[in-house]
Amino acid sequence: MFERFTESARRTVTGAVAQAERLDHPQVTEEHLLLSLLDTAEGRAYFAFTALGVRDRRTDIEAALAAARRRGGMSKADTDALAGLGIDVDAIVAKVEETHGPGVLGPGAPEAEPARRPRTRRRRALLDHRPFTPGAKKVLEQSLRVALGRGDKYIGEEHLLLALTVRPGVVSEALTDFGAGYGDVERVMFGSDGE
């Protein structure tokens, strides 16, 4: 499938790996794909983010994503549903962090130190590799469906962005909260009728 990616889409994917490394996360997630798209300086995703005012709110988006990581990746919809059952997720997270330390529920959380073995060059390369989470892989698959649905032969960063907006979870929730839901993005990138 990667052969169908445009150069800008490939840069987005490799940029997502760099984002995971920067944040010291063990895996590449949908969040990293979004942050990589926010770093683009050209193309349809850049245009959409600029037109929707999302580029100016990157810090707010990163804070929303960090808050979700702190909750163990739970979306606000999930926490609201649990609140309806009388479960206060924020109180639970605070208690867990009080006991085990801040950020313990998020990716890259400290783990028990395993016995250290000497690092060979091959072992170091394997340890430094950041695999994609199932959710991030689904975004890549969904981007192909979006491209094919639009009649496009290749997958561009705009298809990755649209795929992020339709996958349920924290990233699509954050995009919607900041005015960049699927309909908004499609409208500014392709016109009001979706073409």
Tell me what you see in this structure.
The structure is a single chain. The chain is mostly helical. It has a domain at 2-69 and 133-190: Double Clp-N motif, CATH 1.10.1780.10. 61% of the residues lie in helices and 0% in strands. The protein has eleven helices and no strands. It has helices at residues 7-22, 30-38, 43-51, 58-70, 76-84, 89-100, 121-128, 134-149, 157-166, 170-177, 182-190. Helix 4 (58-70) packs antiparallel against helix 10 (170-177) and helix 8 (134-149) crosses helix 9. The two termini are 24 Å apart. Residues 108-117 and 119-127 have low confidence and may be disordered.
List the helices and strands and how they pair.
Blueprint: H1 7-22, H2 30-38, H3 43-51, H4 58-70, H5 76-84, H6 89-100, H7 121-128, H8 134-149, H9 157-166, H10 170-177, H11 182-190
Helix pairs in contact: 1-2, 2-9, 3-11, 4-10, 8-9, 9-11
Concise description?
This protein is mainly alpha-helical and 195 residues long.
- CATH level-4 homologous superfamily of one domain: Clp, N-terminal domain
Report the mean per-residue pLDDT as an integer: 83
Structural class: mainly alpha
> How many extended strands?
0
Overall geometry: globular
- Determine the fraction of residues in helical runs and give it as a percent range: 55-70%
The topology string of helices and strands comes to: HHHHHHHHHHH
SS element count, helices = 11
Q: What top-tier CATH class of one domain fits best?
A: Mainly Alpha
User: Quick one: biggest sheet?
Assistant: none
